[in-house]
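User: My instructor asked us to take a sequence, write out its structure as tokens, and then describe one feature of it. I'm not sure where to start. Here is the sequence I was given:
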Amino acid sequence: MKTTNKKNVSFTHGQAVRTAILWVNLGSPSAPKRRAVRRYLAEFLSDGRVVEIPRIIWQLLLRLVILPFRSGRTAHKYKQIWLENGSPLVLTSIAQGHALEREMRGRHHDVTVATAMRYGSPSITQTLDQLREGGGLGRLVILPAYPQYSATTTASVFDEVTRYFQKQRDIPELRFVKHYHDHGAYIEALAQQITAYWEANGRGDKLLLSFHGIPRANLDKGDPYHCECYKTARLLAQALDCPPEMIQVTFQSRFGRAKWLQPYTSEVLTDLATQGLERVDVVCPGFVADCLETLEEIAQENVELFVASGGKSCHYIPCLNLNTEWIRALGDIVDMHLAGWPTFVSPSISEQNDEQCALSRQEALNRGAVE
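Assistant: Let's start with the prediction itself. The structure tokens for your sequence are:
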């Protein structure tokens, strides 16, 4: 029997089961313009995982105060980093998805990788609709672009995926990648990226590992993000063979008046400059694709802040982006979560499976199934 749901996704007898990876990053406005930024911020800041304030109170504050004043300033920041063909974060994330698919095709039979954004476009809903077109999606790994788990990021992706499938009749097997902050291949890719930068540009007196901040209250409520950031830092220091005093963890991008995770990146840079350090290097291990927070906040604002405070130079080390070791690391991470699924097959076995699907379909039709 052939059935079709409202999304025109059909079940067909004898159809081969497909496996897909959903690669999800945060997202970006559609353009560096006030209206587009306001729309994006409204979606982002309305997520209860991101802002844990009673909804009615928060929405009044958001709509009447924050969006009217913040949208224009944020749009100006986006203009500083915008590329000719779009958002750096979205473009890099999509390119990473394509690169990961090529990597997986060398390891598995018929594994598709699709890229989505938690906020903005391409949305998780749009991308899952496309993955399910034609039917046969039977196995799905959700891979957030967040190495360190936080309820504000990773959990929000899981929420959106589960909301989507609550409305579907035929649900694939789902596997959620919670984190990979301590995965050896991820740490090695970071170390290789930093080492390559140092070889080309020299090494600073200090290396700051600047992670995105979250409210301190989230840590107090049990969010493991803070601990995972520090574990990444410890493992990275070992991989780089750096003395402990050379590396320091900091947190950036705080918002509002509440206390966030400390120490703050901007304050540490100011202190280091006034102490007489000539050069500081900054890398952002929690971001795997360069974005507003790395290209504008760190590479522009904080670099200028360090020099203005008396330092000689502050170097920003780019994110992993399309680093070959990083794409290979992503493949290793995905392989852990594909374990047990029949995707490690040779072309000859695949051809046999196709034959079995055709026989199964014919048998169903012979028994009265509707095509």
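For the description part of your assignment, you could build on this observation: The two ends are 6 Å apart (CA to CA). Try explaining in your own words what that tells you about the chain.
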